[in-house]
Amino acid sequence: MNCFYHPDTPALGICRWCQRGICTACIAEAGGGLACLNRHEPQVQRMGKMMRENTSALAIMGSFILLMGLVFSGASLMEYVQNDYFEPMGLLIGVVFVLFGCVLIGKSLHARSKRTTTNV
């Protein structure tokens, strides 16, 4: 692949905004990835900011769902301890919420670590 702006020069990367090949003369690191120099840097910076915010929102949502799962599970177990009546549906809902919350938190942490190791 060659540079979009310099067709005879090999591309070093791809602009995150326009997906065009860019060479060393056209490349800029924009905080959210590579961008066309003096063309798409603000857009790529906004994309990077949105990705960071979405990762944080995913972690917060996962934590809330995990907490709700613990509440459902705890309420079901407390009902059993106090009244010797076991409600399996409450415990099942709680366990599903706990698992789903853990998955969301794990995805958030994975995305965050992937972003910091690649830095692109």
Question: What does the model show?
Answer:
The chain has 120 residues and is mainly alpha-helical. It folds into two domains: 39 residues, no CATH class; 66 residues. 62% of the residues lie in helices and 8% in strands. It has two helices and four strands. A hairpin with a 4-residue loop joins strand 3 and strand 4. The longest helix has 43 residues. The mean pLDDT is 86.
Task: Describe this structure in a few short sentences.
With 120 residues, the chain is mainly α.
List keywords for this structure.
two-stranded antiparallel sheet, 4 strands, mainly alpha, 2 domains, rod-shaped, 120 residues, single chain
SSE order, one letter for each helix or strand: EEEEHH
* Global morphology: rod-shaped
Q: How many beta-strand runs?
A: 4
Uncertain residue segments? none
Helix content: 55-70%
The termini sit apart by 19 Å
Strand composition percent: 5-15%
Rg computed from alpha carbons, rounded to a whole number of angstroms: 23 Å
